[in-house]
Amino acid sequence: AKQQGRSTYQWYSQEFNEEASYRVALRNDLQDAIDQEQLSVYYQPLVDARTGKTRNIEALVRWQHPTRGLISPGDFIPLAEDTGQIIALGEWVLRQACRDMVHLHSRGFRYCSVSVNVSPVQLRKEGFIHTVTDALKASGLRPESLELEVVESAVLLDTDLVINTLHAIRELGVHIAIDDFGTGFSSLSYIKLLPANKIKIDHSFIKDVIENRSDAAITQGVISMAHHLGLEVVAEGVETEAHATYLRKNQCDLLQGFAFARPMPFDDLLTFLNNQVSA
Ligand code: C2E
Ligand code: CA
Ligand code: CA
Ligand code: CA
C-alpha cells in the first residue's frame, strides 16, 4: 500500500508539473499572440425568436497558436485573467469587434449590434470606460450598436466601482447583457443593482429544458422575471429545432446556438447574413 501511495504521488506530481509548465509556456506565448496577430475574432449570430433574423452578434476570441493549433478561449482566458494579460487582449478584441461592425454596417446590416465579452478583471481596472470610448471613437461605431457581456459575479468584488463603471457605460448609450445567468451563485438582489438591458440564460439550463422539469421551471422563471424588469432574454446553447420551438413558445426574445450558426470568421458572417436576407 505504501508503494502504491508513492507512485500515486509521483503520478500526481508529474501531472501537476506538466500542467504548470503548459501554463508557463502558454503565458509566454500569449504575449506573442497579442503582439503578432495570432488572435482573431469569430462571430456568432443571435437571432430574433419571432422573425428568425439576426439582430445581434457575439464576438468570441480565437487563438491560432503556431505549433499547438487552435486554442479555445476556455483554456487561455482564465490564464490571461491571472496574469493581467486580459487587459491588452480584451482591448484588442473590443477594438477589432467595433471595426468589424462598422464594416458590417457599411454592407447594409445596420440593424445588427455586436456583443463583446468583458472580464471582471477589465471591469475592475480603473479607466475601463476610456477604453470603451476610445474604441468607439477610433472605429466610428455608434454606442447603441455595442453591447458588453458581463458575468453576474463581476460585481462580487469592488461592487461600487463595478456598478459605477456599468452606469457610466450605459450613459454612453452602450448596452449591457448579464452573461451565463444563473451560474454565478450570486444573490438575485444584484439584478436590481446592475444597469442591464438583457439577460443571457446559461446553456446548462437550456440543454435539457424540454425533458427536465427543474430546468424548465428556472428558464420560464427567468424569462418572466426579466420581462417584468423590462429586460430582454437570450437563450444560449440552442442546439436543436425543438429547443427553439420551446423557447419561442415561452416568449424568449433571442436565440443563440448551433441550431442557427456556429461562431465563424468575419467573411463567413457576411455570407451568412447575405444568405439570410435573400432566403
Ligand atoms: P460565453 O461567453 O458563454 O460564450 C458562449 C460559448 O458557447 C462560446 O464558446 C460558443 O462557441 C459556445 N456555444 C455557442 N453556441 C453553442 C451551442 O449551441 N452549444 C454549445 N455547447 N456551445 C455553444 P467559446 O467561443 O469557446 O468561448 C468560451 C468562453 O470564453 C465564453 O463563454 C467566454 O466566457 C470566454 N470568451 C470568449 N471570447 C472572449 C473574449 O473576447 N473576452 C473574454 N473576456 N472572454 C471570452
Ligand atoms: Ca458571452
Ligand atoms: Ca454565456
Ligand atoms: Ca459560458
Q: How is this structure best described in words?
A:
There is one protein chain. The protein has 279 residues and is of the alpha/beta class. The chain is built from eleven helices and nine strands. The protein has an eight-stranded mixed barrel, surrounded by five helices. The longest helix is centred in the N-terminal third of the chain and has 34 residues, at 2-35. The chain starts with a helix and ends with a helix. The model has no long low-confidence stretch (mean pLDDT 92). The site of one calcium ion has 4 residues, from loops.
What brief labels describe this structure?
279 residues, alpha/beta, 8-stranded mixed beta barrel, 9 strands, 51% helix, 19% strand, binds ligand C2E, binds calcium ion
Short description:
The protein is an alpha/beta fold and 279 residues long. The chain contains 11 helices and 9 strands. It has an 8-stranded mixed β-barrel with strand order 1-2-4-5-6-7-8-9, surrounded by 5 helices.
Query: How much beta, percentage-wise?
Result: 15-25%
Instruction: Label the overall shape.
Output: globular
Number of beta strands = 9
- Class based on secondary structure composition and strand pairing: alpha/beta
From N to C, what is the helix and strand string?
A: HEEEHHEHHEHEHEHHEHEH
* Rg, alpha carbons: 20 Å
Which oligomerization state do the chains in this entry correspond to? single chain
* Average pLDDT for all residues: 92
- Poorly predicted runs: none
Strand order of the largest sheet: 1-2-4-5-6-7-8-9
Strand count, sense and barrel status of the largest sheet are: 8 strands, mixed, barrel
Helical proportion, percent range? 40-55%
Helical run tally: 11
Distance between the termini: 68 Å
Hetero compounds: ligand C2E, calcium ion
Domain EAL: 23-277
Protein name: EAL domain-containing protein
